[in-house]
Amino acid sequence: MESIDINNDGTAEETDLLYDDEDHVLYLYDDGDFKCKGGGMGDGSLLIAVNTAGNSRKRPAGSGWYVVDLDESECKAKAAGLYGCKFNAKGKATACGSATVDEKNDEITIVEVAQ
Fold first, then answer.
1. Which of 105, 63, 59 is nearest to 85 (CA)?
2. What is the pLDDT along the chain (115 residues), one digit of tens a residue?
3. Cα 42 from Cα 109, distance rounded (Å)
4. Would the pTM count as exceeding 0.90?
């Protein structure tokens, strides 16, 4: 556990960290309040995966994904479920929308890309 500003609100939260030393992926988890991309606040679980150097899937170090568990209408969600984004090594979102977690490949699948 570490104190990290995982939700980028300016306040450090107690965040669970897990490093997968076999696949070289760092996972961060928190449950609580977070800012919605389009404004407002949400409340729920946040999971982030960051690929590190030498990762087994040869993804760029620093790239990864995050998912949040939203209720219907929370952060403008059309339905309850997982929503998230993939991001590149510079932290820029490359695809966002409703998501499913592919645990076998340490990745998320974006089901419906948000505009």
1. 63
2. 888 887 777 888 889 999 999 999 999 999 888 778 777 888 888 999 999 999 999 999 999 999 999 888 888 888 899 999 999 999 999 999 999 988 888 889 988 654 4
3. 22
4. no
d(CA 75, CA 84): 12
Under 8 Å CB-to-CB from 42, ≥6 apart: which residues? 33, 34, 35, 36, 68, 70, 74, 75
Q: What are phi and psi of 6, to 5 degrees?
A: -65, -30
- Using DSSP's 3-state secondary structure scheme, residue 74 falls into helix
SS3 76: helix
Range of the domain at 86: 2-113
Give the count of domains, the chain.
Answer: 1
Neighbouring-strand partners of residue 86: 65, 95
